């Protein structure tokens, strides 16, 4: 089958980058009009925090669109998703994919086969184990993919992943 590439939503990314730019401009305005130390601190906090976030979002957006590195790529053998680092989920290691909702956000829960899950827990660092156990308590799966910001609905993505899971 053909590789499926799923990107972050174009409009949502542009909206987030625009909001960051507006907050940086607001911080500059506060610095320009400051009357006391509080305004000075608020202005710099706005500029630094939203400037850093805006740069991260812009770099992610450009990397995705210019270098054709999608957020999710689904091949015949695996699911590749990019967060801070790139993760590969082999369909041979997965038991099921399910849509879970937590706090108004949809997630694709990844349930591994028991032997694979044990191996992942043994290899993982203490922070990864904490993340996996927290994920297990919140959405009943050790790993998940947020489907809130992507260009495909959670149900469609889950159906596509389960179809690829059946074929492998």
Structure at a glance:
With 168 residues, the protein is of the alpha+beta class. The chain contains 5 helices and 7 strands.
CATH architecture of the largest domain: Roll
Tell me the strand percentage band.
Answer: 15-25%
Helical content (DSSP H or I, runs of 4+): 40-55%
Count of distinct structural domains: 2
For the sheet with most strands, the description reads: 4 strands, antiparallel
Shape: elongated
> Helix and strand string, N-terminal first?
EHHEEEEEHHEH
CATH topology of the largest domain: PH-domain like
* Mean pLDDT value: 88
Q: Catalogue the unreliable spans.
A: none
CATH class of the largest domain: Mainly Beta
Strands ordered across the widest β-sheet: 1-2-3-4
Oligomer: single chain
Structural Rg: 20 Å
Protein described:
54% of the residues lie in helices and 22% in strands. The chain has 168 residues and is α+β, with helices and mostly antiparallel strands. It has a four-stranded antiparallel β-sheet, with no helix packed on it. A three-stranded antiparallel β-sheet has the order 5-6-7, with helices on both faces. A hairpin with a 3-residue loop joins strand 3 and strand 4. It starts with a strand and ends with a helix.
